[in-house]
Amino acid sequence: MKKDDLSEITAAGWVCGRCRIPLERGPVNITYMKSSFPVELPRCPRCGFTFIPPELAMGKMLEVEKILEDK
């Protein structure tokens, strides 16, 4: 997966630990330092728990954090 391509992140095989139902890709707003970014990520359709894959958290999101903190 390319660091800048969120479209390849799937929910396949992931289950919500609370609700015990499969995660589904859905719209999520990520907010950091008063900036909001709409993305599609695996999330629980019942409780809204959102799974952020490690490669996204330590890749693209870390880059965005650094850019926003430098402003």
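The record above closes out task 2.4. Task 2.5 opens with a second protein, given below.
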Amino acid sequence: MLHNLALACVSCSLRKEARQFVADTSTGGLVRLFSPRADIWSEHFAWNDEQLVGMTAVGRATIDALRLNRPLILAIRREEMVRGRHPPS
């Protein structure tokens, strides 16, 4: 079972729950969530300053489901930009 563990913040973990599929807001179709073990981050996401942008249906659905651009997260990323620590390398 250890192979299935992943480190995630509490709010993202609670938002994901046990879901593996969610609706893509652009198409309405059901798509799987991003899997950090199976997917390549840069194929699904890009940065626009502090805003995370979904480049694919998987990326968009993951951002929406986990609310990865909620106001508090954007404020944290802006502060990290001032400190030269965002976007991550």
